[in-house]
Amino acid sequence: MYQYTCLNPISKKGLNIFDSNYRIIEDMDGADAVLVRSAAMHDMELPESLLAIARAGAGVNNIPLDKCADQGIVVFNTPGANANGVKELVIAGMLLASRDIIGGVEWVKSEAENPDVKKLTEKKKKAFAGHEIEGKKLGVIGLGAIGRLVANVAIELGMKVYGYDPFISVDAAWNLSSNVHHVTDVNEIYSKCDIITVHVPATDSTKGMIGKDAIGLMKDHAILINCARDVLVDEEEAVKALSEHRIAKYVTDFPNPTTAGKEGVIVIPHLGASTEEAEDNCAVMAAKELRNYLENGNIVNSVNYPNCDMGVCTTAGRIAIMHMNKKGMIGRYAALLGDENINIADLTDKARGQYAYSLIDLENPVTPEVVKKLESLDDVIRVRVIK
Predict the structure, then answer these.
(1) Any alpha helices (H) in 193-343, and if so which ranges?
(2) CATH 3.30.70.260 domain extents, the chain
(3) Sign of CA dihedral 99, 103, 105, 111
(4) Confidence check: pLDDT of 366 > 90
(5) Fold for domain 1-82+273-304?
(6) Using an 8 Å Cβ cutoff, are 270 and 248 in contact?
(7) What angle do CA 232, 234, 236 make, to 5 degrees?
(8) What fold is seen in the domain 85-94+133-267?
(9) pLDDT tens-digit profile of 141-174?
(10) pLDDT at site 34
């Protein structure tokens, strides 16, 4: 029986993925797996029993990835599960920024007690007039799960779409509209596009990527949208550019003192993935990832260990070995198992940075004594018997 706990409320549709072989418990003590959304885990004590953490969402800034890797704990996320919800918010952001819908709605509320509001509307509505997005140039930075959807919808809306992603995957490329103009220099997007939306992860190379120089290239009527990560944009420079009328609007899904209430900024309270459907999708994907790992040893969508999938074991046994990515490890496993008269039927070894993961299908099962010998090898982090 596997035990799991939830550090945040998790959709029942996700929890229903677990069958009678799983039991939910109150806290992490004794848990094999954890489901989490936003709970901060950096200062938490992780029990020895813990095998995996699944983040019901894409971002994993709240999870100590290196600490988990050192302890042989696989961390999963759910890329693409909330993509549609974010895509829809980006499209809404384009419309809110292009036409002063919010200003118009607030004006009507201010005139709620005015019996002549209907008549007055015809005089005042010009103050809230804006522009249509059809025919405008949209720049999409990052063509992953979300960026691809935004680009495709924008094409259907009659926009001219420019896409930038030097690391675009084969899957993303196949699912991207052929009408998207792929550029190799992101500065082309900054200088040419009327609306710019960013969809890249927060890494050392992307933090602050849209800063003074990038904003300086933008048109004075440009709309900048950030529903990805707050650190991607130098928001002090964005607010300054707005005050000097060097760009028109900044739409962000990340409230903070720098942007809240500032002229020209539309601040949304982190609603990108806050839909019932997105929460269901993330929970279902996270639960499936945990089951596949716990029951089969397969790793799919990990952020701290390499992906490794050997399907369902059809031999007498399967073991999983987490180890440091150093030369000769496979030979040492093979020699030890051979000395114990255990034959290897199939083997996969994958590496990610300094960590590696081996799945080994065996023609006869391992004994606890053999497992202890494997665990005692230098640079081995964890050994699991799957079957």
Answers:
(1) 212-217, 235-243, 276-296, 329-339
(2) 306-387
(3) negative
(4) yes
(5) Rossmann fold (3.40.50)
(6) no
(7) 150
(8) Rossmann fold (3.40.50)
(9) 999 999 999 999 999 999 999 999 998 888 888 8
(10) 98
Q: Which fold has domain 306-387?
A: Alpha-Beta Plaits (3.30.70)
162: left (phi over 0), alpha (psi -120 to 50) or beta: beta
Q: Give the span between the Cα atoms of 207 and 230, in whole angstroms.
A: 9
Q: Which three-class secondary structure state does DSSP give residue 76? A: strand
Q: Is 195 helix (H, G, I), strand (E, B) or coil?
A: strand
Give the Å distances, CA to CA, from 132 to 94, 95, 100, 121, 159.
10, 8, 11, 21, 10
Structure tokens at 284: 């279902």
pLDDT digits (tens, 9 = 90+) for 78-99: 999 999 999 999 999 999 999 9
CATH 3.40.50.720 residue ranges for the chain: 1-82+273-304, 85-94+133-267
CB-based contacts of 234: which residues, under 8 Å, 6+ apart?
Answer: 208, 210, 211, 212, 215
- Sheet containing strand 160-164, edge to edge, reads 181-182, 160-164, 137-141, 195-198, 223-226, 249-252, 265-267
Residues 6 or more apart from 319 whose CB is under 8 A from it? 297, 359, 360, 362, 366, 371, 374, 383, 384, 385, 386
Q: In the prediction, which pLDDT does 225 show?
A: 98
